[in-house]
Amino acid sequence: METHYTKIYTGSFIIAQLIQTRLEDIGIEPILKDGFKTGLRAVLVTDYPRFIEIFVHNDELDKAMPVVESVKAEMQAKKA
Questions:
Q1: DSSP code of 43?
Q2: What's residue 80's pLDDT?
Q3: Domains in the chain: how many in total?
Q4: 57: three-class secondary structure by DSSP
Q5: For residues 31 and 55, is the Cβ–Cβ distance under 8 A?
Q6: Which residues of the chain fall below pLDDT 70?
Q7: Cα–Cα–Cα angle for 34, 3, 56, nearest 5°?
Q8: What CATH number does residue 30 fall under?
């Protein structure tokens, strides 16, 4: 089965929420998947500390990846 979506992030709920917000700010509507539950759906605050997967449509991949890299870099800078 062919898919038109690519996974761009797997990780904590908090970082996933930041990535989601930043993607929505530039007009991308990501799909979030909670690995511990079935189906694609919106993620609730009660789902923390589970890992979340973020998918975007392949047409938006080039715009989405710099957002993910930027958020990851910010998180690394805060750890240092």
A1: P
A2: 73
A3: 1
A4: strand
A5: yes
A6: 1, 35-49
A7: 55
A8: 3.30.70
